[in-house]
Specification:
The protein is of the alpha/beta class. It has helices at residues 20-32, 51-60, 79-82, 96-103, 108-121, 140-150, 177-193, 207-212, 218-221, 271-294, 305-315; strands at residues 37-40, 64-69, 87-92, 126-132, 154-159, 199-202, 204-206, 241-243, 249-251, 302-304. The longest helix is centred in the last third of the chain and has 24 residues, at 271-294.
Amino acid sequence: MACLHCYSESSPAQRAALDPIVLCDALRILRTEGYQAVSLSGGEPLVYADLRTVIKSARAMGFRVTMISNGLLVTERFADVLSLLDGIAISFDGLAASHNAMRGRADAFDRASAGLERLAAWGLPAAAAISLTRDAIPDLPDLADHLVGLGARALQIRPVAVAGRARSLAAPAVYHTADYVRLYLVVLALQQELPADIRINCDLAPAQGLWQQREAYAGLLRDRATLPLDAGPLADLVNPLVITETGVVKPIAYDFDRRFDIFSSLDSLSPDTIKDYKQRRLHGLQRLVGDALAGLRSRHDVVDWFDQCTRLSQQSSIAWPVAG
């Protein structure tokens, strides 16, 4: 599909894919740097010819491996591959009208729903990844009931970010400050109303709550004079990492500004280049995250933290040596 909100602008016409040998070599190095989880997304991961190889290799390295799928290919043909995963989320954009319009297919919602129900029937760890435009927020209560009824045991909810194709969405779809609060309050209500064994996560959080938890970034923002940055694993400093379809390694989000790229190619990832990044180029990300945290101190609204850092990266005037 060519979804209207796709951050990577994927479509059936795109053919870029990672070399599985290069990817698995990189994952092996990243495992030694403290990373514990791999989340496969796309585009659609089930069209990746080497998916089985990557999942099995990552699991053998000790990673927890999860995947987000549009659900169209969640069929018997892929049942054995899906059974290798620690978690599988089917993506939804609202109820049928909203979802189908975003996906450009009249059958998208029904097929995604059927895929989720199939996963649950197979006894696999089924979840739903919900991305909502501003005008789809009213869909969420009924959508949540529908997905839980199909067997979803977890719901991950986030506002659509203005990235990739979503930059072209019409004004009614784009969030304003009050809309983040609306979505957050609906999620809080769902947490009270749905069964206690259904896990609900939201990418939004109160700004003051994030400010009070700023010590979570102590590893990234620590003073070089008291603890050299190369003394700790990369996972304590930059988390999550994003590996794009062309092998670029980015901090935090797919559309983080390219000036902050950690590596321009997976081929260049090695213990030595990681050490060089920590010593010479990490300070740019330190400054950006420090500025983002400082900006929370006097705010009393709701924040999409990763998206806020990403937008700040696109506005920042910080300059330093580029990724190798």
